[in-house]
Write a structure and sequence with these properties.
heterodimer, A: 234 residues, alpha/beta, B: mainly alpha, globular
Chain lengths: 234, 333
């Protein structure tokens, strides 16, 4: 269970509070610069912010580094890699906090469709493939709190759908997921949607209640229609 | 787990090959020079037997020179590995933060004031003082949580300031032929005429620094793929960055103090070994130490036979410069 109160970081995040039960899959949406990445980084303990974050009955900031590595996994937007580590070694880094026991690494590789790329240097992969490698590394941590920053941004439609399915499966197994997205239609398949605008929380709840045409217009400045449109499935 | 077994075999093979290379370099460094000694004569002299001339040559001249060379090479290469992981850039090198420039200024100041005549300790100690002042400046910045970019730019500034001081002293002593000659020689790096004083200043501390760096290989792997993600995976990034910058600058300071300004070892050795054996720092660190020590000893050999101008720093630059150009051609930025 994740409980955050009054998270504030300059103008990037203003008094954001949220309370999530375990096993929930939450989409974080909002326009560019709304604070989506900032919120995820603050929750991951990567940016210092005012306010409190509790995981279960513990203060997240006080959990020691290694234990935090077993508690949460964060996947950022940057996917640049300077050194030519093979894919498998990068995914195995997810087990750092577990003493590099290698558990779940093969499963993570297979889940993100990386089995064939396992020996390839990460520097030779495309942006989308690299994104999947970092997702696999996060998956290998086995952490019950997963924070993914725009995981589908550079993925093709098939792999993007697979990532959303993976998120759903992890949630059904009891993990808590916060996933930032730009595609509001994808957000519809999440348990909850969290809408940020200029650093503040402007909506939180089940997608069909939160993503109303009025809110979408107020936050994004576009008109929303609910018409029959192209739907994609695996 | 066949892959892992093969990996271990690779690592063992690479370590064995580089250890052998270092052993050959050490033997050559002890045997070759104005007086050629056979390997047997070297061995007898090391054990304190054989004729007196050979014992003097080995114990008083070539062994200190060789040990200083090993320390300088291993220290600079290890420092280079740490810098490259820290800056997540394979073109980072030990001199980047101004530490060797600081050491150079200290030594040059001592030489310009006639310190070389006072005691054998004067120049290395002055170099250490200069290098550690630079190190202190870098660490103060790092401690305040300066970003890598910030540190890099401070390094540019420190390099400029220390370089200006060195040029000033060099120009000031232009009239005194002997002093300016000493300064120029020192700035080109070299390990000839080294004494046991140099060995004691450099070798033990550099060995300790290298040993302290070895266990950081695994977290360096994570760091080199991104700081925030390393932290989210359980690495105490702030502490690791501090450890890397401290060890790297201290190693550079010590190496500069006893060997002068020796360029390119810290850049070329890790880079070349990374191309050959992959980027895993657990393997790259020990291999680079062995490789750096070998490279310095091998580059020192021609300086014994060829005309006086071909100094160690000149040799490593002559090997390293073309290599860097080749790398840039291969991986355009």
């Amino acid at each position: 269970m994740l409980r955050a109160e009054g998270l504030t970081l300059g103008r990037r995040l203003r008094e954001v509070s949220l309370h999530l039960e375990a096993g929930l899959m939450v989409a974080v949406v909002g326009p560019n610069g709304a604070g989506k990445s900032t919120l995820l980084q603050v929750l991951a303990g990567l940016l210092p912010a005012q306010g409190r974050i509790r995981w279960g009955d513990r203060d997240l900031a006080r959990i020691p580094f290694l234990e935090r590595g077993r508690t949460l996994a964060w996947v950022g937007q940057e996917s640049h890699a300077e050194f030519a580590f093979p894919v498998r070694e990068v995914v195995a880094q997810g087990r750092h906090a577990w003493g590099d026991d290698g558990q779940g690494v093969e499963t993570a590789l297979a889940t993100l469709d990386l089995a064939e790329l396992r020996d390839r240097p990460i520097t030779q992969l495309s942006g989308g493939e690299r994104r999947r490698v970092f997702l696999a590394r996060a998956l290998a941590t086995g952490a019950p709190l997963q924070l993914w920053d725009e995981p589908t941004a550079s993925l093709d439609v098939r792999h993007a759908l697979e990532v959303l399915h993976l998120a759903k499966r992890l949630a059904s197994q009891g993990s808590t997921l916060l996933v930032s997205l730009h595609d509001l239609r994808s957000a519809l398949c999440f348990d909850r949607v969290l809408v940020l605008d200029r650093g503040g929380l402007v909506g939180f709840g089940p997608p069909e209640q939160v993503l109303t045409p009025e809110l979408i217009h107020a936050v994004f400045g576009v008109r929303a229609h609910t018409a029959e449109a192209l739907t994609l499935e695996l | 787990m066949r892959a892992r077994g093969l990996d271990t075999l690779d690592t063992l093979g690479a370590t064995a090959a580089l250890s052998l290379l270092l052993l050959v370099a050490v033997l050559a460094s002890l045997a070759l020079g104005d007086a050629y000694l056979t390997p047997g004569a070297v061995g007898r002299a090391l054990l304190g037997r054989g004729d007196e001339l050979a014992r003097t040559v080995v114990w008083d001249i070539r062994l200190p020179r060789t040990l200083v060379g090993v320390a300088v090479g291993a220290g600079l290469a290890a420092s280079g590995v740490a810098m490259q992981a820290f800056f997540r850039n394979a073109l980072a090198s030990p001199g980047l933060l101004g530490v060797s420039a600081g050491g150079a200024l200290g030594a040059v100041a001592a030489l310009a004031l006639g310190g070389a005549a006072a005691s054998l300790w004067t120049v290395p100690v002055a170099a250490i003082v200069g290098a550690f002042l630079a190190t202190g400046a870098v660490l103060m910045l790092a401690r305040r949580g300066a970003s890598p970019e910030h540190l890099l730019l401070s390094g540019v500034a420190l390099n400029a300031i220390f370089g200006a001081g060195t040029s000033f002293l060099l120009a000031l002593s232009a009239g005194q032929f002997q002093v300016s000659g000493q300064i120029l020689f020192w700035l080109m790096g070299g390990i000839e005429n080294r004494t046991w004083e140099h060995v004691w200043v450099g070798l033990p501390a550099i060995l300790v620094g290298c040993l302290l760096m070895l266990p950081l290989g695994r977290p360096m792997n994570l760091l080199s793929l991104g700081e925030p993600s390393a932290q989210s995976l359980g690495v105490d990034v702030k502490r690791l960055r501090w450890q890397l910058i401290a060890l790297s600058t201290v190693l550079t300071a010590l190496a500069t103090a006893v060997g002068g300004v020796v360029g390119f070892v810290g850049l070329v050795v890790p880079h070349l070994l990374r191309l050959a054996f992959g980027p895993d720092h657990r393997r790259l660190l020990p291999l680079s130490m062995l490789g750096g020590a070998s490279l310095v000893l091998l580059c020192d050999l021609p300086t014994r036979f060829l005309p006086g101008g071909l100094r160690l720093g000149v040799m490593t630059a002559l090997v390293g410069g073309p290599f860097l150009l080749w790398l840039l051609r291969r991986n355009p930025c």
